[in-house]
Specification:
2 copies of one chain form a homodimer.
Chain A: H1 6-9, H2 12-18, H3 22-31, E1 41-46, H4 55-68, E2 74-80, H5 87-94, E3 106-112, E4 125-131, H6 155-179, E5 180-191, H7 202-217, H8 223-228, H9 238-242, E6 250-261, H10 262-265, H11 272-292, H12 301-321, H13 323-326, E7 329-339
Helix pairs in contact in A: 3-4, 7-12, 11-12
Keywords (chains A, B): Magnesium, Metal-binding, Methyltransferase, Transferase
Protein name (chains A, B): SAM dependent carboxyl methyltransferase
GO molecular function (chains A, B): metal ion binding; methyltransferase activity
Amino acid sequence: MLGGGFYSRHSQPQRAAARAADAWLVEAATAVPLPEAPTPLLIGDFGCAGGANEMAPMAAAVDAIRARNGAVPVEVAHTDLPENDFGPLFALLESPDGYPAGRTGVYPYVVGRTLYGPLFPDRRLHLGWSAITLHWLSESPAGVPGRTYPNLMSAEQVEPFRARAEQDWRLFLAERARELVDGGELVIVAGASRPDGTSGAEGLFTMIDEELAALVAAGTLRPQESERIVYPTYNRTPAEWTAPVAECGFDLLATELSHTDDAETYGGTADGAAFAERYLPFVRAVTERPFFRWLDPDRTDQQRTEILEAFYGGLAARIAADPASAACRWHVVSLRLRRKPR
Amino acid sequence: MLGGGFYSRHSQPQRAAARAADAWLVEAATAVPLPEAPTPLLIGDFGCAGGANEMAPMAAAVDAIRARNGAVPVEVAHTDLPENDFGPLFALLESPDGYPAGRTGVYPYVVGRTLYGPLFPDRRLHLGWSAITLHWLSESPAGVPGRTYPNLMSAEQVEPFRARAEQDWRLFLAERARELVDGGELVIVAGASRPDGTSGAEGLFTMIDEELAALVAAGTLRPQESERIVYPTYNRTPAEWTAPVAECGFDLLATELSHTDDAETYGGTADGAAFAERYLPFVRAVTERPFFRWLDPDRTDQQRTEILEAFYGGLAARIAADPASAACRWHVVSLRLRRKPR
């Protein structure tokens, strides 16, 4: 994700989507076993980015714990990739907008490792939260010429993405099952496809594919660069999300498919140019790094800047010309999982 | 400290100094109480910067724990200020040079908060290490015209630095005493003054004061900017280091005053120009941020760059002209402290 707080400032759709599960997080915090003193209760926040969307859910979870026991120390572990820019998160944690403000006995920390692997010792974790993260793949399968978005690929083209997503999800569940205490819970919100296989972002990514093709045709982007550009996510269907849950050690307490409408989040699409101007920073925040880190190594900084400006300028024009098609209606799955007794 | 790994690449004197206490860290790891499963053992590393100097001591401590119990999970909490650049630390932890490589059941994390305050819940910590950090003050007292270095100030001028250092040290000890289990240990190495009040860096800081005065005389630096420049540290004497230890809940198991000689670390001073070239990146790594963050806010980026180049260029010339006086002979205190039973 883009660092320096850019992602945090342009991630309103992610927070809007995650709200679907806020109530479940509080219910889980009210239900998980409390440790005996002096063992602290540990909350894991899996995929924190710059932290802007993490403060409200963590505050609610801590308050729910405190309502049960005013004295239990609460550790909150925010995790993301080691190359994530954690600076904005630390700044938020020190600010009046951070959940530590006004709450005593709260101990935040950061783990800079992939969540598709071990993060904590056995039975250390009591409650986990992951919002708008688990549709990202641990690594990017090979690119597909002309297509950046798995939901727009053919069945054969999408297979490596599906297989990687299945492996990632099982690994995440297995490690969390090891780390959670019996009765501990996970509340997860993540990008999803509807049972028919559509995600609601097909319109935007069709414009993205068209703009990339236009850049290649104009000679701005090289064909081999365009072929490497991919959005390394996979939106599992509800059936794909729930399939391995029991096998990996969890009871599925609740699940729901909901959506967030970017047309509403960004103030409507009646004025196409105005919508494009408001919407583009969000699109840029989630695509710039995954798309353009793979430019040829001989590219100068100036060339990179020119490519980025040409791409996002052209995409803005396409969004302005047909804002209703561009505005995503993201489908998200919410899951509430409880660790089975061992 | 300078981010992006610059500090880590130019901190050989800090590691040389900390080696004095490496053996004590292993002894402490061999002596501290081990937790009962599934509680993990927690090692605190207080003041990690970019992490280059932390890998070897943490590896040795983990190995000493593992020699006693091969199964105990070990958490390692690296702490530094929230504005620290933790990126190089996370990169190191993922690399073959990181102590997690080849060791299972090791769980590193990061706390971005001042160590002069709470970091962990009560009785969570088993073993602590702090190398070349605790002579830095929690905040900088007012500047002293013409003097950047407390060891070169008059008794009256230095008093706010001494008082702040005493308060900081007591706060550090009190919080760690709260966090440590009974019998838990701290091993500390930090800048110190000899009983006569000299630190061994007076020669270098005299050159620094002279160069700053020359920049003011030349109109490069404004007088009010020069007056704000200070090196916000205090090198406690051995008596000042040990005075509050018992009162704050610790037994003093061992203490020692040793030194590290930058003339040796940087390959001798026979060739002044060559020594200055090797030595300057270290001097810059520890002084650039504390000295020059307080330039007037109207300064352009270009002016800031010009001031920095003028200062470090002039300082290099002074070092080259008298390398034997410039080369610090840092005095460091080592302390091994054990938490008294409550």
